[in-house]
């Protein structure tokens, strides 16, 4: 397994496909951190250089800038990294005739699938860690802020969350490469699932909420109707892994964020009640944010484990004929 893993690692880091994908991710992230840094510098100048309740440095990752925030970019385009590394991991070997030659040797099937999966997961972890360290360095130079210990722990937790999130898409791509014998078919299926889970599931949640929670006056809805509409829409949207990742990222990277339930309550309150509620709510600690993000993280871990186990079982039970 170690031999297969090292060979796959060398193939990943030396392939033109991975280098092009990594270059695109790095360039877009660098542009995002530059635009977010400009906004943070302007905000700090307005406050006379004062801090933003222990989240000044984290705003580099959450400020939208002119495009989108880095956390939103990772939620939308992070799946591409996992799918690209996994969609042809098995069927390419089968089409080239190398899979049957490997299995004809004293090599177990679980060693093949585990070596390939661990190599791709290590590639994702190294890529995201390198990207995070580069962005932190640029933030230090561009904004002049030093992350506190609390902010460093939050960034570390976000890195673990991102590895799990991209690992889910890696397992999904690996499963498709086992199920479909054609590389083109698995690539199209990967793109279709990415579009479905990232774009259509949230839209389906809004449509279902409109059907299940009719409003008497859509122009002036009541507080109860808004609360029911938001609860149904949010519940269905959480079937999307990008929605789970986005919510957990918001909780981890924003010490004042208290999850979707707080936003739902605030939307039904008057402005005076919102002011009074925010006035007496301070910044959350890392432990409190982790507790709030735990349901979303556990859901992502369950999906992550399910895709890998399905890939493992499908591969060890699949018939591999000699070329």
Descriptive account of the structure:
It is built from 14 helices and no strands. The chain has one domain (2-317). It starts with a helix and ends in a 6-residue tail after the last helix. Residues 262-280 have low confidence and may be disordered. The protein has helices at 2-14, 16-46, 59-62, 70-86, 91-96, 98-103, 109-143, 149-179, 183-212, 223-237, 241-253, 260-267, 271-279, 286-317. The protein is mostly helical.
How is the secondary structure organized here?
Layout lengths: L1 H13 L1 H31 L12 H4 L7 H17 L4 H6 L1 H6 L5 H35 L5 H31 L3 H30 L10 H15 L3 H13 L6 H8 L3 H9 L6 H32 L6
Helix pairs in contact: 1-7, 2-4, 2-7, 4-7, 4-8, 4-9, 4-11, 7-8, 7-14, 8-9, 8-11, 8-14, 9-10, 10-12, 11-14
Outline:
globular
Number of domains: 1
Q: How many strand segments?
A: 0
Helix content: over 70%
Q: Supply Rg.
A: 22 Å
Strand content: under 5%
- State the distance separating the first and last CA atoms: 23 Å
Integer average pLDDT: 79
Main sheet summary: none
Q: How many alpha or pi helices? A: 14
- Helix and strand pattern: HHHHHHHHHHHHHH
Contiguous uncertain segments of 5+ residues: 262-280
Return the structural class.
Answer: mainly alpha
Gist of the model:
The chain has helices at residues 2-14, 16-46, 59-62, 70-86, 91-96, 98-103, 109-143, 149-179, 183-212, 223-237, 241-253, 260-267, 271-279, 286-317. The chain is mostly helical and 323 residues long.
Highlighted features:
323 residues; globular; mainly alpha; 14 helices
